[in-house]
């Protein structure tokens, strides 16, 4: 039976017994034996009222042990910005030699960008164990299994802010996490890439500030194109009904010299799709499509 190792590179897994059973049942049904990382449920550092994580060394050990064990799938229990603290500590040569497929989302996309840059290997974005624990949506689980089995996907009917067609390796993910890589040794090369972006619960003025930082850093000058996912609950704190995040995006990207397509169902919405990450993506604004190659073409 195939193995899935569930670890906590970011925040810990605060699951009930029922939720753990739900995760075990899901993977058993799909012919996987689930194994928990030693520190997946350890909460030793309090970051806020609800968020905890194990020490850097404990989380690193779980990550490295999973790759050394050559688990078929390595999945994060949930997101959490602490993963960036591990980047200088990781032995990327071990990860490069391992046949494991990594699955993560949100803050974990920071790791996934570096993982691709350091190893050339793709991964799966949009899936964490938390989504299985909390009565999983069919769009998430079905697209995860499709991606895990090497399937690509095409999304149609997508509008654009800037016209054109382009292809390139898909990088990016969470806007905050990707922006945090700029100026570090871990920033992936953007030359010829397609940049995927999504965000959750950030006010529009912060979205504009991060996008402007990427622009000033020359990121958009090197890209072949941009794909925008969901910007879920990105509203001003003083007006919860305000929904002008997409106005910010339109004003920022309108007139770009590279194609910018939006509306991809990827992000923190309850129903989203898991995607192959670090694989070839093709944008065609005339056809209103985004096509993403499966993992098998890039492994």
Describe this structure in words.
- The chain has helices spanning 17-29, 56-68, 92-97, 108-119, 129-133, 138-148, 175-179, 204-216, 219-222, 245-253; strands at residues 2-7, 32-36, 45-46, 52-53, 73-76, 101-104, 123-125, 153-155, 160-162, 165-174, 194-200, 225-232, 260-262, 275-277, 280-284, 289-292.
- The protein is globular and about 50 Å long.
- It has ten helices and 16 strands.
- Helix 8 packs parallel to helix 10 (245-253).
- The protein starts with a strand and ends in a 7-residue tail after the last strand.
- It has an eight-stranded mixed beta sheet with strand order 8-16-15-10-11-12-13-9. A six-stranded mixed beta sheet has the order 2-1-5-6-7-14, sandwiched between helices.
- With 299 residues, the chain is of the alpha/beta class.
- The chain folds into two domains: 2-136, Rossmann fold (3-Layer(aba) Sandwich), CATH 3.40.50.10740; 153-298, Glucose Oxidase, domain 1 (3-Layer(bba) Sandwich), CATH 3.50.30.60.
Strand-helix topology:
Layout: E1 2-7, H1 17-29, E2 32-36, E3 45-46, E4 52-53, H2 56-68, E5 73-76, H3 92-97, E6 101-104, H4 108-119, E7 123-125, H5 129-133, H6 138-148, E8 153-155, E9 160-162, E10 165-174, H7 175-179, E11 194-200, H8 204-216, H9 219-222, E12 225-232, H10 245-253, E13 260-262, E14 275-277, E15 280-284, E16 289-292
Parallel strand pairs: 1-2, 1-5, 5-6, 6-7, 10-11, 11-12, 12-13
Antiparallel strand pairs: 3-4, 7-14, 8-16, 9-13, 10-15, 15-16
Helix pairs in contact: 8-10
């Amino acid at each position: 039976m195939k193995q899935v190792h569930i670890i906590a590179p970011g925040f810990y897994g605060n699951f009930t017994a029922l939720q753990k059973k739900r995760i075990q049942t899901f993977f058993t049904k799909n012919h996987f034996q689930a194994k928990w990382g030693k520190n997946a449920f350890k909460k030793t550092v309090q970051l806020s009222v609800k968020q905890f994580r194990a020490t850097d060394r404990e989380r690193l050990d779980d990550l490295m042990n999973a790759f050394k064990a050559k688990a078929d799938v390595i999945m994060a229990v949930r997101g959490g910005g602490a993963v960036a603290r591990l980047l200088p500590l990781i032995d990327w040569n071990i990860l490069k030699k391992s046949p494991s497929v990594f699955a993560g989302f949100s803050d974990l996309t920071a790791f996934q960008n570096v993982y691709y840059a350091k190893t050339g290997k793709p991964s799966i974005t949009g899936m964490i164990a938390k989504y299985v624990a909390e009565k999983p949506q069919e769009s998430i689980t079905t697209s995860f299994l499709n991606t895990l089995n090497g399937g690509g996907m095409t999304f149609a009917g997508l509008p654009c802010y800037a016209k054109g067609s382009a292809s390139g390796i898909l990088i990016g993910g969470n806007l905050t996490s990707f922006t945090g890589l700029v100026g570090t040794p871990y920033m992936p090369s953007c030359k010829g890439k397609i940049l995927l972006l999504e965000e959750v619960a950030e006010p529009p003025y912060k979205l504009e500030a991060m996008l402007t930082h990427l622009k000033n850093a020359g990121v958009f000058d090197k890209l072949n194109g941009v794909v925008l996912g969901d910007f879920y609950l990105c509203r001003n704190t003083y007006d919860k009904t305000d929904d002008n995040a997409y106005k910010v995006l339109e004003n920022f990207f309108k007139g770009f010299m590279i194609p910018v397509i939006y509306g991809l169902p990827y992000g923190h919405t309850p129903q989203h799709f898991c995607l192959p990450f670090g694989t070839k993506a093709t944008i065609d604004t005339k056809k209103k499509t985004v096509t993403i190659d499966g993992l098998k073409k890039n492994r």
